[in-house]
Amino acid sequence: MVDLGLEVSERDGWAVVAVAGEVDVATAPRLREQLIELVNHGRHHIVVDLSDVEFLDSTGLGVLVGALKRVRTNNGELALVCSESRILKVFEITGLTKVFPMHRTLADVSALD
C-alpha cells in the first residue's frame, strides 16, 4: 500500500496542500480531514497540488468536489495543480476540468489573483 503524503504550505495568500502517493478509498479521508481543517481555520483559497499523485479514484474526486463546494460557500476558491497525464485524464473523462481551475505548475496559480 502506498501511503498518502500531505504537506501544507503558504503561497501568495493561498494555502497549498501538496499531495503525494495514491488518493483512494483508503487514503481519501485523510485528505478530506486536512481540507476541512483548513476551511474551518478560515482558509478559503486553497490549491491542491496533485503533481506527485500516482493514482486518483472516484473517492478522491469526491473529496475534491466536496472541498470545492465548502470553499465556494465561503466565497473562496479551490484550484488544482496537475501535470500528470494519467491524473488529468480522470478529470477530463469526468468533465471536472470545467469545474476546477486547473494549472500545470504551482507558479501558474498566482495568476489567479
Description:
This protein has 113 residues and is of the alpha/beta class. The chain has one domain (6-47, 71-108): Transcription Regulator spoIIAA. Helix content is 38%, strand content 32%. The chain is built from four helices and five strands, in the order ββαβαβαβα. Strands 1-2-3-4-5 form a five-stranded mixed sheet, with helices on both faces. Strand 1 (5-11) and strand 2 (14-23) form a beta hairpin. Helix 1 (28-40) runs parallel beside helix 2 (58-73). The N and C termini lie far apart (38 Å).
Summary keywords:
single chain; 113 residues; alpha/beta; Transcription Regulator spoIIAA; 4 helices; 38% helix; globular
Name of the CATH superfamily: STAS domain
Q: What is the total number of structural domains? A: 1
Radius of gyration: 13 Å
Order of helices and strands: EEHEHEHEH
Bin the strand percentage.
Answer: 25-35%
The secondary structure category is alpha/beta
* DSSP strand count: 5
Shape: globular
Distance between the termini: 38 Å
CATH topology: Transcription Regulator spoIIAA
Q: Which class in CATH terms?
A: Alpha Beta
Calculate the mean pLDDT score and round it. 93
Low-confidence stretches: none
Strand order of the largest sheet: 1-2-3-4-5
Share of helix, binned: 25-40%
Largest sheet: 5 strands, mixed
Number of helices: 4
Q: Based on the coordinates given, report the CATH architecture.
A: 2-Layer Sandwich
